[in-house]
Amino acid sequence: MQKLFAILTLLTICPVAEAQKTAPSLPADTLAIVGTSVITGRDLVERIELMPWPEKEKPREHDSSKVKALNSIIAERMLAMEGRQLHIGDDESAQLKMKAMEKLFVRDELFRRKVKDEVNISEEDIRDGLAKFAWELHVVAVGVKDQSAGDSLYRMLRRTSDLASALKRYPAGFVTAVETVKVNYGGLDTLFEKEAYAIGKKKFSKPFISYAYGWVVAVLLERTSNPVYEKMAWTDRRHRVDESIRRKREAALASEYYASILVPQKANADSAVFHLFARGLRSLLLRDSAAHKRSGVFAVASEDVDELLLSFAPELKRNFVEIGDKAMTFGEVIEAFRTERFGFPSLDIGRFETSLNSFIRTVVQLELVAREGFHQNLQYSEHVRHDLEVWSGYWTSRYLMWRLIDTVRANEDELMTVMMETLPVIGNVYRVNVQEVLCDSMTTVQRVFESLAQGVTLDSLARKFSKRGAWAAAGGVSGYFPLSQHPELGARAILADTALLIGPVKLPEGYSIFKVLGKKRTSIGKYPEPDSLRINIKTNLTARKRQQSLNGYLANLAQKYSVEIYYRNLKAVEIQPANMFTRRVIGFGGVITAAPMLYPNWEWVDEWRRNGKVLP
After folding, report:
1. What is the C-alpha to C-alpha distance for residues 319 and 270, in angstroms, rounded to an integer?
2. How far apart are CA 601 and CA 548, in angstroms?
3. What is the pLDDT of residues 109-154, one digit of tens each?
4. Nearest-CA neighbor of 390 among 102, 24, 87?
5. Is the peptide bond preceding residue 52 cis, with omega within 30 degrees of 0?
6. Of 341, 340, 357, 339, whose CA–CA distance to 278 is shortest?
7. Which of 180, 397, 500, 542 could pair with 79 as two cysteines, CB 3.0-4.6 Å apart?
8. Long-range contacts of range 468-472, CB-CB < 8 Å, 24 or more positions apart?
9. pLDDT of residue 579
């Protein structure tokens, strides 16, 4: 084992509790019963309030939207229950994902108890914050090399408040930066903000340390009214100040508590596994670097984690990082990249490995925090069990659904049926040009194929055997004709690949052997390109068949699990009419969606109603 890094302490921690709001009181009326499982109004609100859902933003469609959402949650619940019986999600990759989710929620619960619940804000704090929020400060930040240099500048400013004059006499080597900055209440550099708002009549501060400049002296140029403050209602101002104070205090408490966990800890990583990981991840990013580049860095996406777990499957159980008496496996480290915002500034091998080492250090730090939470038995807390149940149900249901629909395909006969049904709409929009031999019997078909095998051209065979006189004279070439003119031939031609020999196809007028010479459309806009038509029809047909198959499966599950639905209780469930995509910031680090995306799966109810029990 080669030591790659050691966990010492955490010097700073970013505010990570921005999305951790106190949850509003949620309705508890029972909306459905699935076996022994109950679905409440809270479950419905939790899944679609902060995440996109069809028609949610249309008040007139709210009742319909809520019904569809409830049906979809019931479908997910049934699939999850059935999936667990079938041991769906018991594979190593799925187990790694759920264990990582449990660690996330344990950390978040630890943050709530040790940080969030410890923050108290008084009315005096609010008044002080409002007084600062009302003003926008224009300040010159003079960065200095150390405290002694800052004290020297401070003494000069006490003798003359004119900054320009003071800087002329001040040694240039003592200055690291001179910038004019705008300071508003609630900014990221809390140290600078605190000192800037504390500047009194002298209009300059004593030297202090800030995140942005190190040692710095702040000189106030002017104080103006804050336009953001002016536009806000009084209650919004109070809310903004409360949030700002809470965020700062949570960050300070989190940093202190985080450091208390990490200070005595050390970790050693296996260099062989590290370089294996580095090669695999870097190769993945290099394969399509443009697609991975976001905001100037090369980001690791969730699907990248899935691919890494698959490619490294034989190695996932290898010990990667030794921490105390229990190592983190290679699989656990890879999975941890799913919920962290890791971005590589460069794919140069040296810089890439330096960044990766730093990211793995962060993963280990978060692992240590999670272990502290487990040590406090937070995995058994109500919040953690609820969150884990929601996410594990979501993933198990999706795994089973993918397995059910994966083998459902649309065949050529079904494509042709749909195409013929569509011809009244698109028959004059698309045109095809084919070269055809229309045979009068299968005996002639056989002779044509034998001749083709001997090298005879389709042109000469069309002139000799084809029953379409006008085309035969042109060597079987039709010229462009609308699909409606020869419906079955046109439909098969528009679905076929260009230049591929097709047939024999039984038509009312005989047996057709043909190849497509060209396709075109006469109208643009809502109609796809000719070569995309087959893809669109096949995609839509496959989706329809899969949904029909899934509907039947769900209807049977509804009978098995004795589903009961109480639609009347939906009236008491209020959903905000705004479609949004919300992320949940996890305490001590990590980001996930506010809730799993609910899969639209409501059509099964119509099939089930014939035999099922639905309460009004």
Report:
1. 8
2. 11
3. 999 999 999 999 999 999 999 999 999 999 999 999 999 999 999 9
4. 102
5. no
6. 357
7. 397
8. 468/436, 468/438, 471/436, 471/438
9. 85
As a whole number of angstroms, the distance between CA 591 and CA 584 comes to 6
Domain hosting residue 202, numbered range:
135-225
Cα angle 392, 394, 398; round to 5 = 115
Q: Are residues 302 and 389 in the same domain?
A: yes
Torsions phi, psi for 323 (to 5 deg) = -130, 110
For residue 17, what pLDDT is reported? 34
**Maximum CA extent, the chain:** 113
Q: Are residues 489 and 549 in the same domain?
A: no
- The three-class DSSP label of residue 135 is strand
pLDDT digits 0-9 by tens, 208-267: 999 889 999 999 999 999 999 999 999 999 999 999 999 999 989 999 999 999 887 889
Q: What is the pLDDT of residue 613?
A: 57
Q: Where are the beta strands (DSSP E) in 251-292?
A: 267-269
Q: Is residue 32 part of a domain?
A: yes
**CA 217 to CA 202: how far, in whole Å?**
13
Alpha-carbon span 554 to 541, nearest angstrom? 20
For residue 479, the tally of other CB atoms under 10 A from its CB is: 13
Gyration radius of the chain's alpha carbons = 34
The beta-strand segments (E) located in 191-253 are 208-210, 214-225
Count Cβ atoms within 10 A of the Cβ of residue 449 and give its class: 0-12 exposed, 13-18 middle, 19 or more buried: middle
Residue 435 lies in a domain: yes
Q: Is 170 left (phi over 0), alpha (psi -120 to 50) or beta?
A: beta
**C-beta contacts of 542-547 below 8 A and 24+ residues apart:** 542/408, 542/409, 542/410, 545/408, 545/409, 545/410, 545/414, 546/405, 546/408, 547/603
Determine phi and psi for 264, rounding to 5 degrees.
-85, 5
Q: Could you tell me if 265 and 387 lie in one domain? A: yes
Q: Is residue 424 part of a domain?
A: no
DSSP labels, 138-172: EEEEEEESSHHHHHHHHHHHHH---HHHHHHHS-G
**pLDDT for position 377:** 98
Amino acid at 336: A
Q: What is the pLDDT of residue 594?
A: 92
Domain final residue, candidates 177, 192, 225: 225
On whether both 508 and 599 belong to a single domain, the answer is no
Do 282 and 377 lie in one domain? The reply is yes
Phi-psi region of 479 (alpha: psi -120 to 50; beta: other; left: phi over 0): left
392 within a domain of the structure (yes/no): yes
Neighbours of 60 (CB within 10 A): 9
Number of domains in the chain: 3
Task: Say yes or no: 45 and 99 in one domain.
Answer: yes
pLDDT > 70 in the chain, percent: 95
* Residues 373, 284 share a domain: yes
| Model confidence, pTM | 0.79
Same-domain pairing of 185 and 244:
no
- CATH classification of the domain holding 205: 3.10.50.40
Three-class SS of residue 496? coil
Residues of the chain with pLDDT under 70: 1-28, 612-616
What's the pLDDT at 10? 32
Which strand (E) or helix (H) includes residue 213?
Answer: none
Q: Are 499 and 479 in contact (CB under 8 A)?
A: no
- Point out the domain boundary residue: 202, 225, 248: 225
